[in-house]
Design brief:
Blueprint lengths: L2 H13 L6 H4 L19 E4 L24 H10 L3 E7 L1 H4 L5 H16 L7 E5 L22 H10 L7 E4 L2 H9 L3 E5 L4 H4 L7 E3 L2 H16 L11
Parallel strand pairs: 1-2, 1-4, 2-3, 4-5, 5-6
Helix pairs in contact: 3-9
Length: 239
């Protein structure tokens, strides 16, 4: 990693220090969707968008034969597995609401992704998907549901079900709806330039803009190493 990137990491640590108030951190973001206090745990996680982030962007992807990993992504997921991070996928699937495919096809695609990861001793801990859209043609899914990003519903369920610590976690996606959802819960955010990232980058609130998932995990690895070496009192050490 270049020197300027290390300097940026140092500045980012300062941003996440106690001197950065919660109000300042989320002033331009939608509030998280919470009906009751969010029960958090201690495990760090990386929350991934799916289409355009983990795999090549295909509009309304649902057929296994159309699925392609973005290069380096499976190996990046394996590094997270090996270093104690929960790997969570949170994906809007409006194609269900629009009647283009059914939930069972989403589940089949996710099972295929998992089977491919298993071939390199990697895995995704959990998949969460939102089948809703306010303009859907399928009545059961025609709603503006809090699970639909930038809503935080899927994130909050994962945090509670897996005992995750959002303040020590990351969100990686190619759209600003991904970034907004993660930041609303205090996560460090990385916008990838795959998928829709190149057009989204001009108005992003992401902490980092990176080439792809492999690049994003290289940044997280640097943060991880700095923490292990005790070089900073970063967000992981904030009470």
């Amino acid at each position: 990693m270049e020197n300027w990137e290390n300097e940026k990491l140092a500045r980012l640590f300062e941003e996440f220090s106690e001197s950065w108030s919660d109000a300042e951190a989320t002033s331009d973001l939608p509030p998280p969707h919470q009906y009751s206090p969010l029960r958090t745990g201690k495990r760090p996680a990386v929350f991934f968008d799916r289409d355009g982030t983990l795999n090549e962007e295909v509009q309304y992807l649902h057929r296994i034969e159309d699925f392609r990993w973005i290069e380096g992504t499976p190996e990046a997921i394996r590094w997270l597995n090996e270093n104690g991070y929960a790997v969570i996928v949170v994906t809007n699937q409006a194609g269900i609401a629009r009647g283009y495919y059914e939930e069972k096809e989403v589940l089949q695609l996710h099972a295929f992704m998992q089977s491919q990861l298993e071939e390199i001793n990697a895995h995704i801990d959990a998949f969460y998907y939102s089948p809703y859209h306010p303009e859907g043609s399928v009545e059961a899914y025609r709603k503006d549901h809090p699970d639909r990003k930038p809503g935080t519903g899927m994130f909050e369920r994962a945090i509670e079900e897996w005992g995750l610590d959002p303040k020590h976690s990351f969100v990686i996606g190619d759209r600003n709806t991904d970034i907004e959802a993660g930041r609303a819960l205090g996560m460090m955010s990385l916008l990838v330039l795959t998928g829709y990232g190149r057009s989204e980058r001009y108005e992003t609130l992401a902490h980092f803009i990176v080439h792809d998932v492999a690049d994003a995990i290289a940044h997280i690895e640097m943060l991880h190493i700095r923490k292990q070496k005790g070089l900073t009192s970063d967000l992981w050490d904030t009470p």
